[in-house]
């Protein structure tokens, strides 16, 4: 019997063996030879070569007997091996439990994967076919990360399970086919495997068609150089602020998972009593060093002292905390480690200095220490302020303290609240700039852009409510029905907290290119050369605007004659020399296959551009960063909608009710941030807008249809999520 839906000139054969739970199983196998890609397949992969072959296994139960039978019938079972359909040889074949563990390289991982897949499938559907693909490397080298296959298949709808069989810095030997081919050899060389979702029944034709589709998916997702010539060097990276325990919060999971997959030894620097200093931390980090992280003038010196006290060499230091970025950079300079310029970090940290860096011509800004100071400045102005204005703390995080005001009384109120909530910081006052807002993320290496993407940041409640009122003579969006966005409570109309982020962006290509050119140039002007950077900006005079459509709020062609005549311009809001928040970082990996946590760590370990660039360590780092900056092709880029639920009132958090399962099946990542009994201040009074929860909605369609699906389901998730305060 041969595969029905594949060419017959590929090596194929059939074997028989006994499963340990009372079934005789027929295993049809076929080795898929890589052929030149043509047409759509070639364009989908960018003509990249797949560095592996796939071995198809179709395992079909052919007979059963009682598990209580004292003996297994037929002690000798035929085993055939064929090439081009010709069966060669015959000998006894052991039971599945008796298969050898396949060598030390993968520690039996491939064997266990096959065994578990067969047993799971037969227990679930006793007559169904177990279908899976083994990935056999065609090049010798090292995997760029030990879980590369699993991470690239997060959105594969055909896969039941995905597994990798490599470890960091494990040498991979290329698979070579010959007439002495055996399962044992294939299992010992496999670097990964994918099992097909179980299909009830034994319709082999249906299974083979699904396997053909899975082969196309594999070529799309893995056709890039993920097996490289040199292993990553063994490095120790200091992490300032170790975050929460990964099993408690999703935020740090990406950080620690990235380090483990790369074989990077983390040295965590955090406050006394942090979980990484206990036994629980042994799995995740190599060393814990206690350090007082209080934000004061001595912080950089304390971090430097902690770095110097490590039990072993530290090759660099990094942090994922906004508040700690400047002092971490200063500490690195103190101990002679490469870092982005501390002065540039200070500019990014200070919204006033950021605005001075990129102030448009004729742009009027004020800074105020408080209400009294602002009152004096207003009295001395030679020309009145033009409203609406934005008020924000000079040093602040997320959307804390950000307010849009339309009159002098509102301006004074906003400054007063910030003066009380953020004492000794001061407020920045600047014109409100309309136009679509975006998040822009870039990966730089040695002063070169190696990857970047733009995603759409939907309007906040503050923008929705003000525009609904027709302020400034322009109504961007009509009132939102509750079926699209949950009706704001009295607090929410003031909130600038994020509501939705959707990727990829659908702004015109010219505006995407303009954003990339302008924002990357700004990073270079600040002296940044290596790292992952998260920027926020708006496109003035964009050819698109947000409006309510029949299917909800969306970017549509601009209806403004003024905007259509003027050239688009980039308005920089802020620069964050770090990865985006974990919600957006996870979303980027689901849509593009790019893991910013990994790229951030690798960039942190890169040497200064002033140092020699041709040493083996640097060449290995550079090769891995380039490899891990290959995005998924558009054919498997599924739009993602990150839905944020901001707190709308103060009180004590009681409980939350998740959306129904028919919606949650589209949500691979979510988190309720609030804990039962947690006391929350009224956000309208203190200007802080914490999130109650977030949901990451991933479409199952691509392109425009996928975006519509992600957006619609995301708003249904928002509508159906409930939480209780008392």
TrEMBL record:
Domain ATP-grasp: 355-605
Gene source species: Cordyceps confragosa
Name recorded for this polypeptide: ATP-grasp domain-containing protein
Domain of life: Eukaryota
SUPFAM superfamilies referenced in this protein's UniProt entry, alphabetically: Glutathione synthetase ATP-binding domain-like
InterPro entries hit by this protein: ATP-dep_AA_Ligase (IPR052032), ATP-grasp (IPR011761), ATP_grasp_subdomain_1 (IPR013815), BL00235/CARNS1_N (IPR041472), Dala_Dala_lig_C (IPR011095)
GO MF: ATP binding; D-alanine-D-alanine ligase activity; metal ion binding
PANTHER family: ATP-GRASP ENZYME FSQD, FUMIPYRROLE BIOSYNTHESIS PROTEIN C
Keywords in alphabetical order: ATP-binding, Ligase, Nucleotide-binding
């Amino acid at each position: 019997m041969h595969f029905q839906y594949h060419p017959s000139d590929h090596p194929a054969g059939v074997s028989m063996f006994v499963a340990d739970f009372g079934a005789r199983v027929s295993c049809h196998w076929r080795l898929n030879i890589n052929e030149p890609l043509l047409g759509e397949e070639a364009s989908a992969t960018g003509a990249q070569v797949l560095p592996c072959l796939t071995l198809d296994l179709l395992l079909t139960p052919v007979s059963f007997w009682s598990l209580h039978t004292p003996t297994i019938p037929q002690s000798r079972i035929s085993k055939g091996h064929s090439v081009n359909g010709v069966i060669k040889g015959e000998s006894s074949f052991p039971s599945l439990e008796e298969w050898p563990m396949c060598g030390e390289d993968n520690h039996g991982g491939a064997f266990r994967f096959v065994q578990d897949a067969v047993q799971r499938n037969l227990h679930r559907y006793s007559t169904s076919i177990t279908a899976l693909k083994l990935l056999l490397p065609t090049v010798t080298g090292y995997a760029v990360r030990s879980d590369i296959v699993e991470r690239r298949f997060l959105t594969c709808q055909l896969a039941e399970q995905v597994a990798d069989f490599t470890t960091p810095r494990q040498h991979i030997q290329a698979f070579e086919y010959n007439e002495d081919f055996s399962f044992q050899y294939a299992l010992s060389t496999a670097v990964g495997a994918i099992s097909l979702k179980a299909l009830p029944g034994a319709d082999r034709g249906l299974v083979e068609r699904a396997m053909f589709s899975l082969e196309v998916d594999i070529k799309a997702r893995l056709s890039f150089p993920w097996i490289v010539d040199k292993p990553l060097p063994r490095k120790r990276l200091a992490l300032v602020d170790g975050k929460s325990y990964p099993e408690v919060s999703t935020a740090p999971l990406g950080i620690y998972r990235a380090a483990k997959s790369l074989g990077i030894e983390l040295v965590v620097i955090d406050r006394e009593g942090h979980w990484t200093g206990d036994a629980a931390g042994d799995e995740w980090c190599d060393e814990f060093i206690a350090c007082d992280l209080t934000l004061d003038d001595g912080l950089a010196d304390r971090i430097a002292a902690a770095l110097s006290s490590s039990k072993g060499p530290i090759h660099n230091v990094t942090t994922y905390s906004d508040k700690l970025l400047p002092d971490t950079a200063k500490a690195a300079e103190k101990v002679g480690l490469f870092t982005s310029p501390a002065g540039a970090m200070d500019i990014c940290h200070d919204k006033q200095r950021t605005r001075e860096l990129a102030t448009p011509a004729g742009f009027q800004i004020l800074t105020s220490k408080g209400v009294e100071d602002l009152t004096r400045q207003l009295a001395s102005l030679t020309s009145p302020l033009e409203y609406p204005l934005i008020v924000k703390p000079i040093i602040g995080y997320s959307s804390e303290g950000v307010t849009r005001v339309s009159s002098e009384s509102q301006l004074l109120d906003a400054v007063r609240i910030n003066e009380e909530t953020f004492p000794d910081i001061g407020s920045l006052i600047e014109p409100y700039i309309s136009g679509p807002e975006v998040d822009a993320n870039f990966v730089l290496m040695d002063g070169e852009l190696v990857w970047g993407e733009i995603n759409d940041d939907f309007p906040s409640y503050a923008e929705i409510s003000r525009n609904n009122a027709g302020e400034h003579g322009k109504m961007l969006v009509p009132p939102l029905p509750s079926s699209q966005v949950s009706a704001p409570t009295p607090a929410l109309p003031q909130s600038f907290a994020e509501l939705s982020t959707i990727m990829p962006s659908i702004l015109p290509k010219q505006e995407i290119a303009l954003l990339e050119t302008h924002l990357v140039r700004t990073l270079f002007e600040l002296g940044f050369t290596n790292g992952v950077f998260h920027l926020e900006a708006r496109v003035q005079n964009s050819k698109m605007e947000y409006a309510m459509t029949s299917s909800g709020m969306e970017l549509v062609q601009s209806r403004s004659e003024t905007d259509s005549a003027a050239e688009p311009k980039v308005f920089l809001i802020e620069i964050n020399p770090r990865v985006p928040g974990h919600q957006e970082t996870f979303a980027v990996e689901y849509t593009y296959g790019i893991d910013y946590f990994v790229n951030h760590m690798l960039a942190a370990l890169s040497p200064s551009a002033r140092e020699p660039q041709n040493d083996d360590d640097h060449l290995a780092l550079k090769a891995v960063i380039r490899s891990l900056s290959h995005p998924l092709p558009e054919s498997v880029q599924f739009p993602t909608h990150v839905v944020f639920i901001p707190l709308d009132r103060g009180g004590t958090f009681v409980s939350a009710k998740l959306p129904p399962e028919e919606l949650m099946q589209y949500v691979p990542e979510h988190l309720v941030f609030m804990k039962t009994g947690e006391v929350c201040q009224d956000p309208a009074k203190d200007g802080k807008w914490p999130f109650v929860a977030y949901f990451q909605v991933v479409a199952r369609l691509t392109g425009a249809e996928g975006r519509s699906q992600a957006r619609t389901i995301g708003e249904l998730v928002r509508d159906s999520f409930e939480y209780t305060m008392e």
